[in-house]
Amino acid sequence: MCGRFAQVFDDQGLDRVETILRAMIRVGSDPFRGSYNVAPTQAAVVVEGGEGPGERPRRGSGARFGLVPSWSKGSEDGPLMFNARSETIREKASFRNLVRSRRCVVPVLGFYEWQGVVGEKRKRPWFLSRADGDPMMLGGVCDTWVGSDGSELDSFAIITKRPDSFVGTVHDRMPLILEREAIELWFDREAPDREIDVLLNADPVEGVVSGIRVGSRVSSVVHDDPGLIEESVEGDQGMLFG
DNA sequence: CCAGACGTTGTT
DNA sequence: GTCTGG
DNA sequence: CCAGACGTTGTT
DNA sequence: GTCTGG
C-alpha cells in the first residue's frame, strides 16, 4: 500500500512544506514541479537530514519511487521495493541500515488507496490527506546506487504501518505520517534507535487523515491533473440487490 | 573462509 | 554493503 | 499502486 | 496467471 501519491503544492503549500521541514524545495532557477499521480519508478522530491548533528535538512530531488539498494548489480534488477514495513524494517537486509543512516521525508499533498469492494470488478480509488489541510509528511528511507559509469541513482521507499480506524475501512496499511514535532528527530542521524522506534511503532493518531472517493482516471499513470483529487463517485451502482 | 541472499503488495 | 548459512 | 501486454524459429 | 512499464 501507499503506491501512489500527489506531490504538488501551490505557493502557500510550498511555504508550509519548507517551514515544517526547514528545508528548501524550490532552488534557484529549478522551481519545484509536482505531480498529482506519482507511481513507483517515477521521480519525486524527498528531503534528508543534514550530514552532521544539528545541520539543516537539505533538498533532495529526482529520487526514484522504488528503492534500488546501493549493492544492486543493476538499477533495474529485483522487484519494486516502494514500501518498507515498519514492523520489520530493522530486520530486512535492504532496509535495516538505511533506517539508521538514510531516513527521509516525502512531502505530499496526499496519497491514494484502492478499496476492494465485493462484487465490483474495479477497485475504488480514494484520495487521503490531512484533515487539517496541512501538507502530509511521509517517513521513508532512501539509498544511492552508483552505476559502472559513475552515474548516481537516488531512490526511496515509503514506510508503512497498520492503518488508523478510518483508513482501515479503505485498506489494511497506511504510510508512516510524521507530525511536525517528530521531524527534527527523524532528520537527526545521531538519534538513538529506541527514539526512532517510538515513531515507527506508535499507534496511528485517530483523526489525522481524511479521505474522499475520486474518479477512476487516477488509476492510469498517464493522467496527471487537478481533477484527480476532486471528489467523485462515478460508476457507483449502489446496492443492486438492496 | 566463501557463496548467496537481500522485498512489498495482495490474493489464494 | 552486510548478514546468514554451510 | 494499476494497466496492459503476453511468441517462436531461423536468418539477415 | 504473470510480468513489465509508468
Measured between the Cα atoms of the first and last residue, the distance is: 31 Å
Biggest pleated-sheet summary: 9 strands, mixed
Mean pLDDT: 89
Structure annotation, total helices: 4
Helix-residue proportion: 10-25%
Number of strands: 14
Strand content: 25-35%
Helix and strand content put the structural class at: alpha+beta
Element order: H for helix, E for strand: EHEEEEEEHEEEEEEHHE
Shape: globular
Supply Rg.
18 Å
How would you explain this protein's 3D organization?
The protein has four helices and 14 strands. The chain is an alpha+beta fold and 242 residues long. Strand 9 and strand 10 (124-130) form a beta hairpin. The longest helix is centred in the N-terminal third of the chain and has 11 residues, at 11-21. The chain is globular, with a radius of gyration of 18 Å. The protein starts with a strand and ends in a 29-residue tail after the last strand. The mean pLDDT is 89. The chain binds four DNA strands through residues 1-5, 37, 39-42, 67, 69-72, 78-85, 92-97, 112-114, 116, 122-123, 125, 157, 160, 172-173, 218-222.
